[in-house]
Amino acid sequence: GWLTGRVRDQARAVARRAAGIAAVLSATRRLSAAADAEEAAGVLAEQLAAATSSRAVVFIPQDGDLRVVAASPPLPDLGAADMTAARWSWDKGEPAGATTGTLPNANWRFHPLQGVRTRAGVAGVDPAAMATEDGERFVAALLDQGAVALERAELAAAATETEALRRAEMRLKTFGADY
Question: What is the pLDDT of residue 177?
Answer without folding.
Answer: 57
